[in-house]
Amino acid sequence: MKKDSFYITTTIPYVNADPHIGFALELVQGDAIARYQRLYGREVFFSTGTDEYGQKIWEASIKEGKNVQDYVDHYAQKFIDLKGTLDLSYDNFIRTTSKEHVRATQEFWRLCDVAGDIYKKIYRGLYCVGCEKFLTEKDLMEGVCSLHPNKTPEMVEEENYFFKLTKYKEQLLQYLSNKKVIIPEWRRQEAIDFVKDGMEDFSISRNKERFSWGIPIPGDDKQVMYVWFGAFINYISTLGWPDSKGKFEKFWQEGKRIQVAGKDMVKFQSVMWQGMLMSAGMPATDVVVYHGFITGEGGVKMSKSLGNVVSPNEIVKEYSTDALRYFLLREISSFEDSPFTMERFKDAYNSGLANGLGNLVSRILTLSEKYLEKCPEILEHSMPQEFKDHLDKFEIQKAVNFTWNEIGALDRFIQETEPFKVVKTDKEKGKKIITDMVLRLYTIARMLNPIMPETNILLKALIKANKKPDKPLFPRKD
Ligand SMILES: [Zn+2]
């Protein structure tokens, strides 16, 4: 990577429910990449936020008998609180109801309008409030929305504004012909197929009578913006565009632009948003990294009704932030669906952290405290190339596996060399082995920086102080 400024975003979730573990995965993945890039001296801007407009939110606020702004404030706070819960290092949290975002969205609309890409059209079709979109043949199952079978779709006819996405068909195919724009590479075909077969101009407004909780459209007080159009613009409004251009220039125009999203977002992030950027005359996203979903046991969807929903807050309370980050980044595939159960979590915690890392730290530092006068001299720049290669390709799980392979190798090294025996017969030789072990442990500690930031700091401090931990880093759970 040549560029020195590095920009990374997550998608922004709807604020009509508590944060779930799937979004925690996206945040922690984004955070690990941001921290890794900072280690390399790149200037990083990491952004996340919340999507607070839309009919679903409006209806949910009525259901709870709350004023809609109070309702979104309440839920947005739960997402803001994840910063501490998950130890996130983001630089800005953007809310779509903020003044800056509203202003940016209206300005972006104006740019697309000037480009001749916004027009009015009468639309008639079945509308699903759950999806907040008109349903197509593919969405229907026995006359109802396949995602919301309990919400009867309404027949709606109205005049809406449309965005001329089809105008950018060739330009989008050109963009998608670059293998690097989508990770994992095999999801790229999905985007290409959508552009070739399924892509249409999309509606970007709603009639105010039916849908009032949205951003006003410049010059038309009968319509408000449709959630999708407005939500995408958070990726540049968070940088202060259009009022202050400094961060926008540094990170969006000149930086490396990385966006993390779920695998169901391919046509939104890699097609619709890219078409909007082309219309506004802005550079396209360099890479969109798509993660899979976290499922319940046996691959079933997590849902309240099945009672298999896992709350990131509860896991952190029972274990720790770093324990959750470890599980999300190592036991959950970086790109494919993976199951999450408390059983799996506990097993992974005990084997990888209590017995694995925790035990290793205690063994090595007990020896060094006893036999070395002080911490050996540390060469600061010793991050293994293989670890870096994985993270440069956003293969976080492989990077974490590499780290734990090193932990296993160091464990075997202790068993084979038996420094605790050697030091009693040949003191100098024993001390040399212990010194090697401490240096290797320090390299492991450095690799923990993007994965488990708190453990990284603690472990480096213990090594430098040449002290064994007072209590186990990761107490075993039964
Ligand atoms: Zn639906």
How would you portray this structure in words?
The chain is α/β, with parallel strands linked by helices. It folds into 2 domains: 5-291, Rossmann fold; 297-465, Isoleucyl-tRNA Synthetase, Domain 1 (Orthogonal Bundle). Helix content is 49%, strand content 16%. β1, α1 (21-39) and β2 form a beta-alpha-beta unit. The mean pLDDT is 94. The protein has helices at 21-39, 55-63, 68-80, 82-85, 99-114, 169-176, 188-198, 227-232, 234-237, 246-253, 266-280, 312-318, 321-331, 342-371, 385-392, 396-417, 419-425, 427-447, 453-465, and strands at 5-9, 43-50, 92-95, 118-128, 133-134, 140-141, 144-145, 154-163, 182-183, 202-203, 205-207, 216-217, 220-225, 256-262, 287-291, 294-295, 338-339. It has 19 helices and 17 strands.
Q: How large a portion of the residues is in β-strands, by DSSP E?
A: 15-25%
For the record, the count of structural domains works out to 2
Number of helices, counting only DSSP H or I runs of 4 residues or more: 19
Mean pLDDT: 94
The named CATH superfamily of the largest domain: HUPs
CATH class of the largest domain, anyone? Alpha Beta
The poorly predicted ranges are: none
Radius of gyration: 25 Å
CATH fold title of the largest domain: Rossmann fold
Strand order of the largest sheet: 3-2-1-14-15-9
Give the fraction of residues assigned to helices: 40-55%
Given the helix and strand composition, which structural class is it?
alpha/beta
How many strand elements? Answer: 17
Assign an overall shape.
elongated
- Main sheet: strands, sense, barrel: 6 strands, parallel
Cα distance spanning the termini: 45 Å
Q: Which kinds of small molecule does this entry bind, naming each only once?
A: zinc ion
In CATH terms, what is the architecture of the largest domain? 3-Layer(aba) Sandwich
Function: Is required not only for elongation of protein synthesis but also for the initiation of all mRNA translation through initiator tRNA(fMet) aminoacylation.
Organism: Candidatus Nomurabacteria bacterium RIFCSPHIGHO2_01_FULL_42_15
Family: Belongs to the class-I aminoacyl-tRNA synthetase family.
Domain Methionyl/Leucyl tRNA synthetase: 138-364
